User: Fold these one by one.
Assistant:
Number 1:
Amino acid sequence: MPESPMPHRPTATGRRTAIVIGGSTAGMLAASVLSSRFNEVTVIESDKLPEGPEHRKGLPQARHAHLLWSGGVAALEELLPGVTGELVGKGAGLIDVMTDLVSKAPSGQWFRRFTDSRHHMIVCSRDLLDAVIRANVLTRRRITLLDGTRVRGLAGDRHRVTGVRIPADSTGQATTLHADLVIDASGRASQAHKWLEALGLAPVVERVVDAGVAYASRVYEAPGYTGSLRYPVVNVQADPRQAPGRGGVIVPIEDGRWLVTLSGTRGGEPTADPDAFEEFALTGLKDPVIGRLLTQAKPLTDPVTTRSTANRRRYYENAGLWPDGFAVLGDAVAGYNPVYGHGLSVAAQSVIALRRTLDRHGPTTPGTARRIQRAVARPVGNAWNLAVGQDAYYPGAAPQPPTAVERLLTAYVDKAVAAGSENPRALHALLDVMSLTTPPTRLFAPDMLWNICFGPRKGPLAGPPLSEAEREAAGLS
């Protein structure tokens, strides 16, 4: 006789409740959406969350540079209207990508700084971003924070999740907190795949592409009078076809500081040695501009390092059986090499997908959870293809080398980058994709094909396109 699904019993008469596992960006944004569609929303976070922009142990990557591309900015503003202005008011930058980004492509070209930008990004410390989002969300009356609490597993069966198991007290005994919908947004450390197996579901298919990237980051007092200018982000990207791949970025953040992140793959990793940080920037990258800019800057912290940077995706949307009442978002579905700056944008876009699915199908309708998982897969897949298309070229990144099709696509993207570095129309299309506002198929549109093959070029740049004012402000002239 076939197994019968567990009948769903409301958690309280006439009241809908939801639980969000994880109190970082994805979790808080998910809670904001659920708070207007459920009577009670509980956010469970293993860390004790700070009140302001302070570092917390459970988010080690917060020490490194983060960028919120325009696709993510639009999603964030749609979810929390006015939050962009609040971030800017607290010192974050809202920059034009084509104008305020000095970037060397992996294939070697310096991008020209065109002035007709339609893409922008938010630049600030991750601590500030999280603090502003957290303060905005936790003031909502239907949301309760349960921090300092680690979820032990899911309650329910293979057909329906009915809540989560959490410690009841200091003795270690577990109790069940019931909910009509549970969202796992606990990030790279998510245990959702194990919890689902414990309920009797088949193992989730997983793919890992690990370029072996290590990161070292350090905060500096911005040099000279750069703080009085709208100083650009300076980025030297690594070339995956010339291992080890080494890169670096300077991000002007709040309070007149620069957040500098250096990266390197196997055999070329940066270290936490303070004396080696600037030397790596000066001699280890394809261009010494970052090292030269740091010669007049005062370090405010020692370098911090991270090695948990693999691209890892779990294909929950392809599961043969999926329980009602449960969905996974953010880095818990897919974590990306941070160099691409897509994780935060994908998280915000995934919450937009969550909201649309809830409104279209109903918060507790059978099948809604599976629809959420499939809707989330679309923004996840767009960013995944961009990241893996580059990182798969590093030695040892994946069990199999890039296929002939992947090599062909990478060669085409290189041509798109070359065109974008010298042609503003080609750069618009390239940024449409990199900013996660359109899918990668945009690169194959007729206008982009024409610009790659026949479009006018302004000619390659010999060096980083810093203005004379920017060079003088940093003490380079």
Note: The longest strand covers residues 214-221.
Number 2:
Amino acid sequence: MIAKGKSYEFLENIRGEKRGGATARVVEVLRNAIVMHAFEPGAPLDKARLCERLGVSRFPVSEALARLQDQGLVDIQPQRGTTVSLIRISDVRENMFLRKALETEAVRALAATMDQETATELKANLAAQRKAVVGGDKQGFHRLDLAFHDILLTELGFPRVRAVVESARLALDRVRFLLASPLRRAQTVAEHERIVAALEQRDGAEAARTMGAHLDQVMKELMSFARREPELFTDWQD
């Protein structure tokens, strides 16, 4: 099933992109379409139509699809074509485990060292999140949510930790966007506010607890969603 129609008109045409960057741009365009559920789990991907719409040759499209397969976002089967991967709950669990282990310890450490500049940056991000919630800006809120966590990890100052969390986060983007109802977005802002409040109070234990509860809520809501729409998942068992 394709949410936006078989013409793929919703995809950005990148004709004229420099040769060396064409594959990366195709990856970006298709990944965003999958994460934002313009292509739903299980949707077939027609390579010829993708080439036509994107304005590129078959090579960058084939390379991009191979990279997206490595990221667990598409399935490529010889003689049967390419489809958007169903969501694997086992992968979500593993990546959320990584995020929780690292991000709870990140805020625990940050509580003792966070400066006023970072606190101000976080509060500005929260204000923008609240505005996105009121305005119903789902995509804008998604970007601000990612930025909130990135501010924390950047301030921590451990590049390898940030890289591992980024990798896990990339694998979770599709789920986070899927669950981003208006209520969940409002709840996310409240959870982020509690994290910042704990950091400002220099309470590392509370910051870690609130971050853990925030990330746990994603898994709880995912399991509830999977019960309602099991056809989107490849390893769902009630």
Note: DSSP finds nine helices and three strands in the chain.
Number 3:
Amino acid sequence: MATPQVIAPPCAQPGSPGTQDVTPTSGVIHVNTRHVSGFVIIGNHLAQHHKLSLIAIGLAVHIQSLPAGAKVGIKVLTERFPESEARITAALHELEAEGYLHRSRVRLPNGRVVTRTTSYNRPGADAPPVAAPARKRTPEPALKAKWAPPAPEPDPSPTHITPNTPTAPEPVPAPAATDPVRVPAPTAPRKQPPPLPQPHAPTPELLRTAAAILADLRRHAPQLTLKEEDIPALVPGVAAWLERDVHPDTIRHALTDQLPLPVKHPAKFVRNRITTLLPPPLPGSADLAPPPRRKVIVIPLQNCDTCDRAFRATDPGHCGDCRTDLRQAA
């Protein structure tokens, strides 16, 4: 009989290398493609940072992908991204605190002050020295390389340095005296909040009612859920409202109307509204009375004893003309 020929290779045995399924059952699955142009290298210390927010990480990646000299001011970033100016400013502060970004105010030789931004792809690491760009050598044709003369031997002069001899690093030149002077950014003084209003006569019933109003705010606005230690500090302000004959429903409406979303600090928000929306005290009955009318003195009419003409005088007698005639006759 003829010897049987084996044409197909044997099947791989279970458990052999290369046949197990390495696809995870849950979580992310990476489909990676090698980049050959238009990419930036980002370290996991930035991409997986446990303190930076997602906006700060994305902003750091965007800044590191820009070429040198690109504008990265707050106005430029606000026009580029849909986030607000406040969020971008907060993200830049996060990057500065973690060492990924450094902004300084420098004065140019012409006297103009500008903001200089420095981006670090790895904070804390020494930046490598910038090497001079190597000249691109054009490859010679294969025919010329074949018939090229042999290279000359190196000159065995005393100045020749063997590859095993370590070379000393070149000294870094000191900064020139004409370097721009850094000017610190101006900071405005922080405005102190106004004091909380205080009642003139804080009775126990007044303070108890004020505490009940503050504790009941969470039923009408869950965003204003106050801590237990915040209520005693806000009670005098609500007591000042009650002392001015303000109804509890009016106080509740003033504190819960048109709330912003979200309310980050309920105690500070309630304190601000208690202070800024404080109504004036009600006027008394004497203040609401009409002003007294001015008394008008009316001089009565009199008939002249001589000409019987009417004239105004307090006492009867002669008019002005008759008194002149009488004086001339006398």
Note: The two ends are 188 Å apart (CA to CA).
Number 4:
Amino acid sequence: MSDEHETFFDHARPPIERARMVLAHRGANLPQVALKALAREVILRVTQKPVDLTKPKAALLPDAVAIVALCDALIDRDDRAAHDCVRAARLGGMPVDDLYFGYIAEAVAMLGTRWDQDEVTVSDVIIGAGRVYGILRELRTVFLAERMLHAPGAEAVFAQVPGEIHTIGVTMAADAMRRRGWEIDLKLSFTHDALVEEIARLQPAIVGLSASTSQQTFALARLIVALRMRCPQIWILVAGQIVSKDEHLRDLVDADAVVRSLDEAASAMEGHLAEMAQLSSKKG
């Protein structure tokens, strides 16, 4: 393995840097149309309105100048500029939902408008999308803590990656986890957009995704990008035969866990459930 790959897979790196590198590395060998699709996915999902929240409190929202500044920072030569803007707003007391829907989303929408009007390049937008992705990945624990009203239960959504035709594996896994005491909401045969919106409606803490072939890697990566932007708090597990196709799949698609067996899935999910319970107890 090259030094470049060793650096990329270094889990000691800060979350924002790892997430940015994941998106950049994922696109390194993709055609331009695929890179544009991932960037468009970030812009589309972040700028969609929440399904369960009212309009953010205007008194806490940044003004137009601050939003322009964040948009500029997303494509600045300084990798940390946008992160520093968001961090300053957070430390200034802005609630996380206002931060997301009233600040980051407005800056991302502005970036999308600039793209549509050819005021920024595709490369700029890909860089900006990667930075947004990294910022929201770094804030995941904050989103989870603020939305957690009580100690979490053993609940999850299991779904096929859009385009997957084999249903028996994920169906059997859902049934097996139910026998272990989990409440599993199984989603089959959804299109990409429909599945993203269904999971956004449900707002689960845990999502299990199943795919079988390496040809579905990009569809899986695109789905995970969309879900992380639409539901920043979720924890994503990947299973199915695709796991055996690439030893670096977890990093390439930015999953929280990849598993090869039901026992591994149960252990990983129970471990995350315990982490959420600990987070809930600290909040209380």
Note: The first helix runs from residue 3 to 8.
